[in-house]
Amino acid sequence: MTTLTACPADPAHAPLAGQLQHSYLLQQGGFINGQWGSAAAHACLPVTDPATGQRLATLAASSVGDAREAVRGASAAQAGWAALPARERAALLMAWHAQIIAHADDLALLMTREQGKPLAEARGEVMFGASFVAWYAEEAKRVHGEVLQTYSADRRVLTLRQPVGVVVAITPWNFPSAMITRKCAPALAAGCSIVLKPSEETPLSAIALCVLAQRAGIPDGVINLVLCTRDNVAEVGRALLEDSRVRKLSFTGSTQTGKTLMRLAADNVLKVSLELGGNAPLIVFDDADLDRAADGALASKFRNMGQTCTCANRILVQRSVYEAFAAKLVERVRNLKVGPGTEPGVTQGPLINHQAVQKVQRHVADALAHGARAVLGGKPDARGGLFFQPTVLLDVTPRMRICHEETFGPVAPLLAFDTEEEALALANDSSYGLAGYFYTRDLARALRMAERLELGAVGVNEAVISSEAVPIGGVKQSGIGREGAHHGIDEFLETKQITIGAL
């Protein structure tokens, strides 16, 4: 890149910079081969605070030409990065981790302002995201091959684990920091270079993480960032995946978009990892600790205002404890505080955009029309804008839309069931299979249910199941591949067999 062109500065940008301890975290555009900006003026990308509607920044969006330049930069850097000894890649990852920790407060504030989640929750995500960088710094040093038994005394067979090559990482808006590090850290550890395309809703967190990677000393071209608008995201994505130098796609987002990307990736037979939509069941059996189950349902359902792929989308409660559990959950939900994430004590921020609010309203209206009762909430919050009341629906049945579509909002629908077999059938009655949870004191039931649930991740008496040390991923239409644990780095490695003869 030779000429950098930025969009005109927005007056709102200066106040945002003034709120940060380190204003250099704000850049005006993408990051390609070690340079910030755009090779040619394409369009402006506005960034808005969902809590207030305030314009936070105006960024220079990347063009198709920028996308191709990003791939070129990543491809040029690939061989040198892969050739670095693992301990040197690990040291650079640890330097990036240190930068993230040192800037955690600013990263949290940026996330809250552009995404909406409460500040304490945003800071928790920053630390969660940083944990993947530290974890994969260690995993970089544990990529081993094998010596295999062979059929002949004069032959030896070796296997090598080698980086797959240039990675396109496409990340969502609901976890704008952690989903980047959960993809980029194992890719970097494996020896892959990256072209990162974050959501157009939340580019500031991605920019800040790339600034910190540069400050940590990660070489130019190893991490590249392209920023899209809603108008050009499809053509930029197509340009990235049609480039023969790209060898891997890692995507987190909706199932519909994942299917489209998978079709594009097929033309070049890319290695693919997809974490897609969910419809998580949370099952409460009659022998459960109801207080623990209610705490778990609250934590799972209302985290990030219900805007998570793994949150409890359907809460199935055995009929004999249905009313008692509902009362405990309503008591907890009633104490949630709605407001801008920067206000003290707020636990529920705004939804991401008007389309999200409309979807929640459609699901609630459909449930009420088919006989459900809203015992708490059920409407947009009195604050207006993108705020929605934390909601509990009773008398929900499987025929309702909310049981089959991902709501992505702060609505807890409770369904009654009678037997274990019925609960299992209801839980598995979905095209999705990302995560699910159940509460019981019966060990035999716990083992039966955990094995028979058609899910990629199961929490037993626990509703918070993600960490850097465990694999997360879906079955059925919830995705392909795993992120986290040692499984996460496997997604960015190829196995090469070497046969040596004439010994």
Automatic annotation (TrEMBL):
SUPFAM superfamilies: ALDH-like. Keywords: Oxidoreductase. Belongs to the aldehyde dehydrogenase family. It comes from Bordetella genomosp. 7. One of its GO terms (molecular function) is succinate-semialdehyde dehydrogenase (NAD+) activity. The lineage of its organism: Bacteria, Pseudomonadati, Pseudomonadota, Betaproteobacteria, Burkholderiales. One of its GO terms (biological process) is gamma-aminobutyric acid catabolic process. PANTHER family: SUCCINATE-SEMIALDEHYDE DEHYDROGENASE, MITOCHONDRIAL. InterPro entries: Ald_DH/histidinol_DH (IPR016161), Ald_DH_C (IPR016163), Ald_DH_CS_CYS (IPR016160), Ald_DH_CS_GLU (IPR029510), Ald_DH_N (IPR016162), Aldehyde_DH_dom (IPR015590), Aldehyde_DH_Superfamily (IPR050740). This is Succinate-semialdehyde dehydrogenase (NADP(+)). It holds the Pfam family Aldedh. Residues 43-498 form the Aldehyde dehydrogenase domain. The active site is at 275.
